[in-house]
Amino acid sequence: MKILVINAGSSSIKYQLFEMPQSVVLARGIVERVGQPDAVLSHTGNDSNIRRPVQAGSHQEGISVILQALADPQTGTVEDIRQISAVGHRVVHGGEEFTDSIRIDSHVQESIRRVADLAPLHNPPNLTGIQAARQALPDAVQVACFDTAFHTSLSPAAYLYGLPYEIYEKYRVRRYGFHGISHRYVARRAAVLMNRDKYDVNLITCHLGNGSSITAVKNGKSADTSMGLTPLEGLLMGTRCGDLDPAILFYLSGKGYSIDQLNDLCNKKSGLLGVSGVSNDMRNLMELAEKGNRRAKLAIDIFCYRIRKYIGAYTAALGSLDGVIFTGGIGENCPSVREGVCSDLTQIGIQIDSDRNRAAQPKERLISSEKSRVKVYVIATNEEAAIAADTYSLAQA
Ligand code: ADP
């Protein structure tokens, strides 16, 4: 069965075509600068790599560009786009309603629209992607996979803020958490690697990329997670500040910052970029720190320190810990961050093996020492494969 996975953002549409159930990627690509006159398609598949300007003034046009590329007689992968049996869509926010991936009908589409208020930057482009795919492939099963769904198992003690309860009742202000497709994927892979039932493991999963979050997984279910109402809370990120005393915002507002400026400051100008003053990219910061750049080193130190703090807190929240997983661009590729996070944690049973940690392959590997009570793994995330798997099982149901 051919399944197309679509991740529609505000100005780009990423896609991968899978052959299921083998989970083989037949083609992949991205349409960038959607909505602008200079949109570009990059497409890989059928032994060819293409990069060319395309007409994608809207998401609708962007989706037709993708379908044309997939069915191109020379460089395409399918003879006819009707061979695509199902489409899996990444949707950032599913609110409290969507506890799992779901087949999309008009009712589901309407519910995604209703929660868009909680994710104004993400859900609207996700929805336009859904609309466009439903129109272009009316016979294909359409499935929505939510970044929040894995975290709907949080207890009220973990998801409620200390605000008046009416704020939750009236406005649904609570912790939702994000990156759930990735946290769930690596947690399931870890259970396989540990030869344990997926509902019989307590894990801490660290998704460390440009956006970063950490999740406590108790008996295979998300029990707590660092991102909150929005992806701003928690760890230090590429450009987001993460945890903050909320009174800082009132204080800065008194100094003349407007709401929009504060929003911009916390989301786009803080984090690794804000602290270092030079870059949000961990690779650059590593190089600079090695050359003696003090603020680059400071940004990395804060990044690692906060992850350590969460690991301590989540170990207590879980009661007992079987494994820690590192994933995401930084989690998978940056041994010194893993070392910075895990050094001197023997008292909670975590001890990484320096050689294993420095090895670059395979994509899934144990990096803890034989003596470590807690197993530490690097597991490359694969959100697209997870979406394809959910879409496949719902399309068959
Ligand atoms: P996103 O959240 O945008 O999906 P990624 O998961 O791709 O981000 O992670 C991007 C981050 O991963 C960047 O900070 C980048 O510098 C970092 N990264 C990628 N490869 C390496 C590497 N080899 N060493 C250190 N950091 C890396």
Summarize the structure.
The chain has 397 residues and is an alpha/beta fold. The chain is 38% helix and 21% strand.
Give a description of the structure.
- The protein has two domains: 2-146, 2-Layer Sandwich (Nucleotidyltransferase, domain 5); 196-383, ATPase, nucleotide binding domain (Nucleotidyltransferase, domain 5).
- The strands form two sheets. The chain has an eight-stranded mixed β-sheet, with helices on both faces. A six-stranded mixed β-sheet has the order 11-10-9-12-14-13, with helices on both faces.
- The protein has 15 helices and 14 strands.
- It is of the alpha/beta class.
Q: Key terms for this structure?
A:
397 residues, alpha/beta, Nucleotidyltransferase, domain 5, 8-stranded mixed beta sheet, binds adenosine-5'-diphosphate
Element layout with pairings:
Blueprint: E1 2-8, E2 12-19, E3 24-32, E4 40-45, E5 48-53, H1 59-70, E6 84-91, E7 102-103, H2 106-115, H3 123-136, E8 141-146, H4 156-159, H5 165-171, H6 180-193, E9 203-208, E10 212-218, E11 221-225, H7 247-254, H8 259-268, H9 271-276, H10 282-290, H11 294-318, E12 323-327, H12 328-333, H13 335-342, H14 354-358, E13 364-366, E14 375-379, H15 383-396
Parallel strand pairs: 1-6, 6-8, 9-12, 12-14
Antiparallel strand pairs: 1-2, 2-3, 3-4, 4-5, 7-8, 9-10, 10-11, 13-14
Helix pairs in contact: 1-3, 2-3, 10-11, 11-13
The structure holds adenosine-5'-diphosphate.
Adenosine-5'-diphosphate is lined by residues 209-211, 238, 281-283, 286, 328-330, 333-334.
